[in-house]
Amino acid sequence: MLLTLFESHTHFFLSMFQKMILTKIISNTLSLHKKQLIEWLPAVRYFSSPTNPLVNVDVNDKSGIAVVTMNRKPVNGLSLELFEAMSKALDDLENNRIRGAILTSSCPTVFSAGLDLNELYQPDKKRFKAFWTTFQDVWLKLYGSSFPTAAAINGHAPAGGCFLAISCEYRVMCPDYKIGLNETRLGIIAPIFLRASMRNTVSNREAEKALTLGTLYSTEDALKIGLIDEIAIYKVKAIERCENFLAQFNNVSSIARSFTKRSLRQKDLEELENCREEDFNIFWSNLIEPSVQKQIGDYMQSLKKK
Ligand SMILES: CCCCC/C=C/C(=O)SCCNC(=O)CCNC(=O)[C@H](O)C(C)(C)COP(=O)(O)OP(=O)(O)OC[C@H]1O[C@@H](n2cnc3c(N)ncnc32)[C@H](O)[C@@H]1OP(=O)(O)O
Hints:
It is built from 14 helices and 9 strands.
């Protein structure tokens, strides 16, 4: 009967907490080992996501790995709409018990150019609040996902682009691009969740240097400091390497893996959860400083003049 309950209510049982309690109750009742219980869980149901022009999700039925492709031309500028689409895609992935996700881009030479500068320049407070809140949601869902994640960085990844990549667990990047957190060069203070992702990727000293200087690293230099894990010549190869990384988890209990990931990232997630409003207020007051607005405006002009 308990098994029938599991199968007919897969969605309901997705939350980690519920899964933990149920695992405990059932294993006590049936004296089963946890590993056996995992094998009892219903066959994974993969899905094809409803089409969203901004984020394409393609799940491989055999491997259970989802390729999540950002598709906002020309440079995957992270707008409110793109964040909303990513947030929805992450919910769908979480609800469908996939085995892993690979984040990549449909733009030929850009993974993501970071936050859409149009959201930052002369912002409307109401829209910006929705934008920032959705951005926070995306980070909480990506960094805290129960499934393993990797980024196939097939192009430049400055600022918010780098940030998405370092919120994943593994990074493979194609050669001759730039990656880094150049926010300070625009007069922008790095928010707490950005600092957390960076410190989780490179040493504290490298994180401090990279964030304060706003350095953009070449693919090769990024590998040297551990900002990325591997270099792959083409996007297809980068996705393959990410798949290899994710396939390693096939022999690991998914419950043990996701709980371990969660416990390692819990402090960072809670830090933001506990101060979302304050994080918004700090970023907003820095953003609307006339000197910062001027810097962003000049920067946008310089990009257009190129
Ligand atoms: C993570 C926590 C959040 C903290 C704060 C985060 C802040 C940010 O993310 S601010 C954004 C910072 N981003 C950048 O500094 C990157 C700016 N862009 C570039 O350096 C380059 O565009 C490139 C290297 C990413 C790609 O170069 P290229 O292929 O040569 O393309 P173009 O420069 O010609 O750009 C094409 C087109 O796109 C516009 N554009 C570029 N970046 C952005 C952007 N971030 N937001 C909005 N629009 C952007 C650029 O102006 C061109 O427009 P058109 O001239 O109208 O075609």
